[in-house]
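Q: My labmate handed me this sequence with no annotations at all. I'd like to see what the chain might look like in three dimensions before we decide whether it's worth expressing. Could you predict it?
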Amino acid sequence: MVTKYVWPLASSALVVLFGAALLIWPFAVHTNVGGWTHATTTDFWSGVGTIVIGLLMFLGWYGGLKHELVQRGIVEVRRVEEPPTPPAAVAAPSEDLDRLLRPLAESVLRDLTEQLAAKEGRSGGGSI
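A: Here is what I predict for the chain of 128 residues:
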């Protein structure tokens, strides 16, 4: 059952390692003496492609293994339980909101008027 996934997972891991070797090979053996030659570029981008293909193979086989294990009931999928949301507060009608905010608005208006009067008193009340 599960053993049919062992060889594909192992071989895809080896493909990824082979791709990494292709990436490193030109730099480890110093075959890129004149900079990025055609051989260096070919090895590098072949290594990138090989790594991508190997990772896609690995993810595909791993997903198949996980799906089969869940299907057979060997592994349970953990579900994140969200805490229950409290009931939304009932929105107050606009009259209640006006009634609640009126003292605040009057207080702000009174403070601004006092500050403006104090500022005009300091400047002598005249304009320059």
